[in-house]
User: Which sequence fits this backbone?
């Protein structure tokens, strides 16, 4: 299995990683590497700002497409990561595991509290 660096700041065109739409660009690259049987190593080089919304779209949604074991096999340790990058990444991964393990129950709770349907496509 080949490990391929995924340069976040290059994919999004800069070091400000805050939008979910930019996160989807990174997700598409990571997902393709997994489908192709490679390991993806997220490179945080040049990332100066980053939100959990961005990471949810980039990494969190992988847990909706693949099981945890496959993700562990195909995601290499991050490259050039600072502590704050890793803290946010851990928050997103932990939440994604919980959500995708029982998303119907969580959606039901969301709906009962807010009176709204949780639209996963927004």
Assistant:
């Amino acid at each position: 299995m080949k490990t391929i660096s995924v340069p976040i700041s290059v994919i999004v065109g800069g070091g400000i990683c805050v939008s979910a739409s930019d996160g989807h660009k990174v997700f598409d690259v990571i997902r393709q590497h997994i489908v192709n049987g490679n390991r993806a190593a997220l490179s945080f080089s040049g990332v100066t700002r980053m939100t959990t919304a961005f990471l949810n779209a980039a990494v969190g949604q992988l847990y909706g497409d693949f099981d945890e074991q496959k993700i562990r096999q195909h995601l290499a340790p991050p490259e050039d990561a600072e502590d704050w990058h890793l803290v946010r990444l851990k928050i997103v991964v932990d939440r994604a595991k919980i959500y995708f393990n029982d998303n119907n129950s969580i959606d039901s709770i969301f709906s009962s509290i807010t009176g709204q349907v949780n639209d996963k496509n927004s």
Q: What stands out?
A: The CA atoms of residues 63 and 69 lie 10 Å apart. The chain has one domain: 3-114. The longest strand covers residues 3-7. The two ends are 34 Å apart (CA to CA).
